[in-house]
Amino acid sequence: MPSQIFPPISGYGTGYFKSSTIASNSPGYITAHNRASPNDDGAFVFESCTIKPVTPSVISGNSNIAYASTSSAYSLRNSYLGRPWSQYARVIYMHCDIWKHIAPARWSIWSPGNPQTSNVIFWEYQNSGQGDTDTIASFAKVITNSATINPYTLSKLFGDISWIDTA
Q1: Which regions of the chain are under pLDDT 50?
Q2: What pLDDT was estimated at residue 11?
Q3: What is the pLDDT of residue 70?
Q4: Local structure of residue 152 (DSSP, 8 states)
Q5: Where are the domains of the chain?
Q6: In Å, how far are 1, 46, 89, 154, 167 from 122, measured between CA atoms?
Q7: E strand or H helix that includes residue 155
Q8: What is the pLDDT of residue 55?
Q9: How far apart are CA 47 and CA 19, in angstroms?
Q10: What pLDDT is recorded for position 2?
């Protein structure tokens, strides 16, 4: 299967990553979503993905890899699922295998002087893996109700998905 390289996963819009390997090669942030207002569309959604560390410069493998390059150093427990690029950022991880390289808080602020976390949607739903959610950041949520997460499934986000190759 070919590799897909997305350095970095950031900006405005909708990105849906399904059954992909998201490979962090260094400490930092896998995502930085930017949404200008609460009424704007857009989200980064990760469904049934593996979120794992790799050594720097590793970007190929047996599966689709979104390559999150954030700095030249690499260490465990020093990466984050995301941080807000704007106060309305929306990032969701569902049914993902999240490895232990993710920091205990799992999510980060934009900056100390401008955290931009008051209106973010940073959700996790039925994830598994070596990382835990006992100390998740106060502005993020572990969702337990499937009805809450349903609007962020592939067909709900895009409507008619006949144009998408899901093979």
Answers
A1: 1-2, 60-65, 67, 69-74
A2: 92
A3: 45
A4: G
A5: 9-158
A6: 30, 12, 8, 17, 28
A7: helix 154-158
A8: 72
A9: 6
A10: 45
What fold does the segment set 9-158 form as a domain? Pectate Lyase C-like (2.160.20)
* CA geometry: angle 42, 92, 122, nearest 5 deg: 95
**Is residue 142 helix, strand or coil?**
strand
Question: What pLDDT is attached to residue 130?
Answer: 81
Rounded CA-CA distance 15/36 in Å is 16
CA atoms of 33 and 90, how far apart (whole Å)? 6
Tokens of 65: 């890899």
What is the C-alpha separation between 99 and 121, in angstroms, rounded?
21
Q: What is the residue whose two structure tokens read 């955290």?
A: 115
For residues 33 and 44, give the distance between their C-alpha atoms in angstroms, rounded to a whole number.
Answer: 7
- If you count DSSP H runs as helices and E runs as strands, how many of each does the chain have, helices first? 2, 14
| Number of Cβ within a 10 Å radius of residue 68 | 24
> How much is the pLDDT for 64?
46
Q: Are 133 and 104 in contact (CB under 8 A)?
A: no
**Considering the entire predicted model, what is its pTM?**
0.85
What is the C-alpha separation between 161 and 84, in angstroms, rounded?
Answer: 28
